[in-house]
Design goal:
This protein has 117 residues and is an alpha/beta fold. It is built from 2 helices and 10 strands; from the N terminus they run ββββββββββαα. The protein starts with a strand and ends in a 13-residue tail after the last helix. The relative contact order is 0.19.
């Protein structure tokens, strides 16, 4: 999973109602790489259930605390960049590499017309 922007993932009834996770690695997912994403203002940035091999690298985020349920294999987190929680998007805009991810996230240009009314 590369070059996405994920923000404002919260349970509508508050923190005590379930655990919304911005990037969720599902049951026994294997050989997953989560790279060069911008992740901010979420209830939980990253997590999953029973993941096997997960590599998290070069992400921008305001919270590096994952929620893993019974990981089966190694999970490595390295070389990610912390964004100030109170101004994460603004901090991203101040970083040229982060800004590139913000600008390019979403549908590829050739598919964007499908969203037009």
């Amino acid at each position: 999973m590369r070059r996405n922007v994920i923000h404002d993932v919260h349970h509508p009834r508050g923190v005590e109602e379930g655990i919304p996770i911005a990037i969720y690695v599902d049951d026994e997912a294997d050989w997953v790489t989560i790279q060069e994403n911008v992740i901010y203002a979420n209830q939980h940035p990253l997590g999953g259930s029973d993941p096997r091999r997960v590599h998290v690298i070069y992400n921008y985020w305001d919270d590096e605390t994952p929620v893993w349920y019974d990981p089966i294999g190694p999970i490595t987190v390295e070389k990610s960049i912390d964004l100030a929680p109170d101004r994460a998007r603004e901090a991203c805009v101040d970083d040229p590499a982060c800004t590139v991810i913000l600008d390019r996230a979403g549908l590829e240009p050739r598919y964007r017309p499908t969203l037009a009314p």
